[in-house]
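User: Predict the complex.
Assistant: Input components as received:
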Amino acid sequence: MAEKILEIRNLTTGFLTDGGMVKATDRVSLDIEKGKTLCVVGESGSGKSVTALSVMRLIEYAGGMITEGEARFDKQDLVQKSQLDMLNIRGSRIAMIFQDPMSALNPVFTVGEQIAESLRTHKRLSKKEAWRQSVDMLRRVRIPDPEIRARQYPHEMSGGMCQRVVIAMALACNPELLIADEPTSALDVTVQAQILELLLQLKQEFRMSMLLITHDMGVAAEVADRITVMYAGAVVEEGTAADIFERPRHPYTIGLLQSIPGLEGERGGELYTIRGAIPPLSNIPPGCRFHPRCLYAMDLCRTNEPPLRRSLSGHMAACWLDDTGAEDPRPGNPNNRETKVTIGNRPEVTFP
Amino acid sequence: MKHEYLLEARHVTKYFPITTGLFNRVVGHVKAVDDVSLGIRSGETFGLVGESGCGKSTLARVLLKLKKATGGDIRFEGRDIEQVSSSDLRKLRQEMQIIFQDPFGSLNPRFLIKDVIAEPLRTHRKMSAKEIDYRVVELMELVGLDVSRRNRYPHEFSGGQRQRVGIARAIALNPKFIVADEAVSALDVSVQSQVLNLLQKLQKDLGLTYLFIAHGLNVVRHISDRVGVMYLGKLVEVARTEELFAHPRHPYTKVLLSAIPKPSPHRTTERIILDGDVPSPANPPSGCRFHTRCPYAQEKCATAEPLLEPTGDDRQVACHFPL
C-alpha cells in the first residue's frame, strides 16, 4: 500500500452548547496518500471544515474540542501535540488556505511582506533573503510582474490575484500537505478554472499532498484522486472519482448527484429532490443518520448504524443495503463478505 | 393591446460617477450597463449570466426602476416606465417583484414571518386584517411552508425556508414579472433543487415571467427558455438555451461554458483558460471589450465595436467573427 501522509481515525469534534455537547464530526476516518489529492464534499454543516480545522488543531480557537480519535501526520498524532508544537507544524509542514482571499490577507501590509513573514518565522531567513524568496513565490504562482506586485497591498488586487497570493504564502515554506477549504468558492468560474489549474500544477512542482474541501461536485471531479462524501458530521462514502460519479453506492450520494441540474441532455423537467432536510447536529437521528430521508430505509436502518465498509476495489460506503460483493473484480468469489473491512470503530454488526 | 415583449429595453445605459476631492468632482464613470437592448417575452424565463461586475444585477435593478437609467428606454407592456406618473408607478410596482440572493439579509429580523409576507399586501391593498391573514396562509401553503410557524421570526428558519418566504412575499401581489437575482446561489445543492422546482411550479400555475440571474450556469440552463450573456456591461450573446449551450457563437460564451467544472470523472470538452483579469468597467478596452482576452481576436476587434446583431434562428451575437 502506498505511503500515507495523513491518517485520520475516528476523529470526533464537539462544541459545548446550552443543550450539551454537540458533535460536529462523528468518528470521521480518512486517509491521504503521499502526493495525492483527497476531496471532501458535502453540504453546509456536514462537518468538512470542522474536520480540516481539527487536523490543524485550530478548532480549539473556534470553541470546539476533539473528544476522540487521532490524526496521524508523518507517524505523529496531531491530536496529542501541544499547541506550541503545532506552531512549528502549521504553516511550515501543513499549510491551509481559506475561501475568502480578501479576509485572509492583512490589509495594512504589502503582499510581499506577508509572504516574507512566514519565511522569516519558520525558516529564520534574513529580511533580504525572505523578500527575494517571496518575490520568487509570486512568480511561481504565475503572477505577472512579481517585483512590482510584491510592493502592492491586497486592495490593489483582484479576488483571483489575492487567492494566488494566499497560495504563495501557504506554499512559501514548501509544506508536505496543503489543506484548501473551498479555495475557489468565492471566485467566478473563469477565475476558478485558473486557480484549480494552478493548484494542480503546483501540487506536482512542490510534490505535496492536498486535502481539498468543496461543496461543488464539479470541482471535486476535476481535481480529486479520491473523494470522501460527508453527511451530517459523518463519512458516508469514499472512493475514486469514477466510483463516486459512476457507481455511487450510498443513497445520499446518489440523491445529491441527481439533484444537480446537468449541462447536457434533457432540461427543464422537475429536478430530483432528496425529501426532508438536513437534521440539526444536536438531533442526529438514531441508526443510520440518513434514514429519515432515505427512500430505501429498512427497520435495521432506524436502529443500527451502518459501518463504513470497504470493497475489494477500495470503494467504501456506510449503508446497510450496499452489497459490496457486486464490486469484486473476481466475480463469484465466495469470500466476498470476509474481505470487507470495517474502518474505524463504528459498530460492527453482522449482516442479517 | 398585445405586445411581443412583456418587458423591452432599448439602448439602456447605467453609469455610476466616480468622484474625487472635497467637491465630489466627477472624474469618470463606471459603465456598469452600456447600451443594452433586450426583450423578455410574456411567460418565458430569461436567464442572464456573466461574472461578478459584468452589470447583470445593475441591469435588473434598472429594469425594475429601482435604479434610474442613465439613458435608453424601458417598456413594460408597451408603457415607458421612465414616463409613468407616481400613481401609475405604484401600480407598476405591484406587477414587478424581486427575489434576492441572501436569504439572511433580505428579511427583517424583527418582523414575524407572517408580517414579512403581509407587508406588500398592507402597502398596496386595502384588505382587512382577516383577509390578510387568510392570504398569508394561502401564500405559505403555495410555497410549501408550514403554516403553523407563521408567528415565528426569520432566524428560526433555515436558508431554504427563508428563500421560500422571499418567494411568498414576491408573489403576494400577483405580479406578472419577477426578477430572481441569484435566488438559489446561496443554497446547498439538495435545497437548491427544491427551490428551483418551486419556482417552476409557480411559473406554470401563476403564469409568471422570470428574469433569472445566476452565475451557476447549470442552474440557468435548467430553468431558462432563453439566455443572455453579459461581459463588462455589454450583452454579448442571446440565444435559446439549448442552442447557446450546444453551440456558443461568442468566444466569451464558449470560454465561460468550458470553465464550468463538470460532475463527471471524464472531461468531454477541452477547457479554455483565460489569462489575466476582467478589465475595469471604468476604462473598458477599445473595440470589442473582450478582445484583450479573446483567443480568436483579430486586428479589427481592437478598433471597431461589434454590435449585438441577429444571426437568424432567434439568436443575437455581438462579435465580428462569430464561431
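Chain A has a mean pLDDT of 87.
Let me know if you want any component modeled separately.
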